[in-house]
Prior knowledge:
alpha/beta, Rossmann fold, five-stranded parallel β-sheet, three-stranded antiparallel β-sheet, 50% helix, disordered C terminus
Amino acid sequence: MVLNNKLTYSHPRKYGPGSRKCRVCSSHHGVIRKYNLHMCRRCFREYAADIGFKKPIVSLAQHFLHGMDISELPPELSCPTLQLIVLLGLDVRNNLAHKNIWEALMMNRRPDRPPLNFQLVSGDSHDLTTMRTKEPSQEAAVKGILKIDWMAKHLHRVPAVLVLFVDLDWNSPFWNEKLSECASKIQSIRHSFYGRNPYLALVLVQSFVTLPTDELATQKAAELCSSCELSSKLLFILPQSEHLFGYVVRLEFAFYDLAQNYYQNELKLLKSKKEALSRTVSQRLYVRYSFKQGFFSELRQDAHSALKYYKQAYQMLLEIEPVDPAVTELKVIGGYLTYKICRLYFKHIASSESMSHFQKHIEYFRNKTSKLEAEFEHSAWLSKQYSFFAELFDAAVQSGLTTSSAEHPGFYYQTAADYMIRRQREFELSSKDGENETRKAEEAEEQISTATTTVVGYCGQRMGWSLSSAIDSEGRFDHSSVAVGLLCNAMAHFKNYPRSVRSRHCLLVRLGMQYVRQGRLEQALQAFLQALGPLRRARWTSLVSACLAPALRCAHALARPKEYVALVLELLNVEYGVREPARRVQLQRNLLALSSGAVPEPDEGADRAESDAALMAWQRLLFDSTTTFVPVAAGDINAGLTVTGGFCSPEGMAVVAAPTTFQLRLKSDLPEPLQLTKVSVQFVGGNDPAQSWTLDTPVEQRPLLQPNTTHLQRPSRSILDSRRRKCTSL
Length: 730
């Protein structure tokens, strides 16, 4: 047996349609090529066990751990709700006819075919759930609302229809022996599923087509049904002919009708149980039965009824008093119901109702926390709520739903990222104060231990929870990677709306912060520089100030002199730069050190490994460089050192072809005096190099700029425009 948890999948863009496709359903998406399977993921999941692969077993302890994580949604909640049909008696390995039947059932599962999930069972090697002895309803209601494995059980282990395939012709010479064997198999199957009520159908695989008027066939069919205690409506004939696929499709629709009846019977049973309840006494049971009614309605593909039952369950859930230890359970079940309700609303093209329900859901549970729940776990739950709603909204948009700049999935992705960042920050605080918080949590556990039970099998229950174990588990979670993914999804939606420019730049800043946390400094610097320009022009000083320090750290770690000098000059700006005197002095000295060919000191917040790597990069750069001249476009930044110039004359105007004086205005916000080594003024005359010239200030006129002062500099000689052009200020 081979475990199927490390298989690789081909990408359709890499291999292209026609070059790689599933040998069962001819799909090009996600084809598994390892072990020469050439099967898509769906087909592989369907009959992996039949071709020698073993599915990883999920233990009950793992189910309990899943119940501990209140933020994650179970996969059964979001997967397609397909009716489970179990096939017995097909030997696809050794019997070619059986293999053809199985492939006809599995290939080309188009939307026009019934939504069925076929599960092939050979011999006794099945994982189907038999009926257990049920506890009284009132006692079960005290334990919890919904069992952890209930949805998975009815999707993968409790069949709606059992189909037994038997090779038997009407004129078989071994008719009596086959008849007895068939009756014995059916009796054994009924005994195995005692307590459950799945439909049991019998399919006779025959080698030729039988006419409906054949008296022998009618007689033998009646004898077979009588011997097996089977209704004639549950007996089907499948002849082996060139029209096998058509017969199989007809069989599918027959199985679909049987499954519809099975789930309808389950709904009637739940309805009778719910009608016998008192809503004021059995609120939890009412929520449970309504949830199950909605789930079975989804299996029947009745979306309107499912939405009605889910809304009933959610409304009754809000009537339950949210007190410990039930707060977390109510929050988790409320999240499950909200996911179902919002998905069905989007399916019905009712986006406004979906958004309204989600906002009410968040407003109700936003401040509902339990003593058996850390702060970062509540933020994780809120982040997941916004994340799954954004995914549902995004899927609806891809299906044709129209949005506007004021309401689109990007806002929900952005909020999910905000809560993920908040989760990370709260986790870091909890890690520092872990001992005190653990002691408080233990005291809270002792206070409510009398109101809890030792059984942990229900969604949202957290018996045995401790803050120390929650912190240990949270420490293995990569917050930054999830936040980066959410921010990128948000930006992808904001880019579709030109009026959301400021929102995109704000997302860029947050994205850069998360890149810094991940150590991806190249991407972080690129994000910061991309956002800084528009933020300067918009005079969004708070975000500019937030960008400069981490951007400087990235520029220093990557040994980028041009970006480093520009960021230092801007950080020395008194308007939104660094205000601590010691830090300002350090920045200016780093700038002077770099101009003299020395390595600047590392930035604050850099660890030892990052500082050592930056030192080596700077030394290598300065050793290979022949000059320390770093050009900086000062007009594009708000530097702490500004230079402006212009023509001046006593008359207040410049005359063409007359001597004109040029004046420089130098302003310094630097914390220490700065000696200028060279002041050069270059006049650029359009595209003609002959009309450009440079004026250098003499050495004796180069100023010593004092902190927080403005210096006027006038060259000793005047400039004569011999080309008789109009003089304009620079």
